[in-house]
Amino acid sequence: MHPRFQSAFSQLPADLQTAIAPVLADAHFSAMLSAGQVSSLRSATGLDEDALAFALLPLAAACARADLSHFNVGAIARGVSGTWYFGGNMEFLGATMQQTVHAEQSAISHAWLRGEKALAAITVNYTPCGHCRQFMNELNSGLALRINLPGRAPHTLKDYLPDAFGPKDLDIKTLLMDEQDHGYPLQGDALTQAAIKAANRSHTPYSKSPSGVALELADGTIFSGSYAENAAFNPTLPPLQGALNLLSLHGYDYPAITRAMLAERADAPLIQWDATVATLKALGCQNIDRVLLG
Ligand SMILES: O=c1ccn([C@H]2C[C@H](O)[C@@H](CO)O2)c(=O)[nH]1
Ligand SMILES: [Zn+2]
């Protein structure tokens, strides 16, 4: 088991500990649970889905990288496929606060990048901040997304975001997690291709500046992240954050990154290059390249 889970694991109910121990055994556990695993955990514990998600939250919060605040937020995004995706907040020392990933964004980006088509619910250990409520309002689940918080009755995003501003106000009909393909041809090595594939899936209706980042690790693993824009612009999740989030959720640390690749258009109105390089340098990665889409 990855050491970050040890303390949270030891506080789980005994039946849940026994049932989930084999899943956590791999130090690079993917931080997601298939529908089959969820159903086995339910039979082992007798918990319904909502109660099981609450019981698992300490494990999601253990995925947080809150090196500045030491305030660990955990979220579990529950996909319509039945797969559950953990998320934890990420803070990057040496970068800016704007680079932070909230736990809700972490879980949602995780689900999206793993191919989930829509979310049914999200369970979080703290009340979602305004930025996260706005981020969630970009999703194709709309205001119907169920939000479960400890000690509260289940609500929907509509309850937490009354009088909402969103994609519709800007005449945008393609939503976050809708299938998208910007169609840029693949080129180059595996890392470059992964970055282009990530860019092709990016949600970028506002700037029309697709981008993706792929990170190669010392053991050869590649994690890639797609850019996820937001109608209110600031809650946007940059492509590097998507990739770093997957890397961290899989139990890797930043020094494992050997090479980074950003894919974007040279003539795009918004450019990721400088922010991507700045954040990666703060994490100790100097080997950064860019492939131009087109
Ligand atoms: O809804 C919220 C509110 C805050 N945080 C994180 C962001 C930052 O890392 C830390 C302190 O705000 O908690 C979340 O992940 N989700
Ligand atoms: Zn938030």
Automatic annotation (TrEMBL):
Domain named CMP/dCMP-type deaminase: residues: 48-168, 186-294
Enzyme Commission number(s) of this protein: 3.5.4.5
Protein purpose: This enzyme scavenges exogenous and endogenous cytidine and 2'-deoxycytidine for UMP synthesis.
Residues where substrate binds: 89-91
Keyword vocabulary terms for this entry: Hydrolase, Metal-binding, Zinc
Gene3D superfamilies (UniProt xref): Cytidine Deaminase, domain 2
Gene that produces this protein: cdd
Single GO term (MF): cytidine deaminase activity
Record's protein name: Cytidine deaminase
Residues at the catalytic site: 104
Lineage: Bacteria, Pseudomonadati, Pseudomonadota, Gammaproteobacteria, Enterobacterales
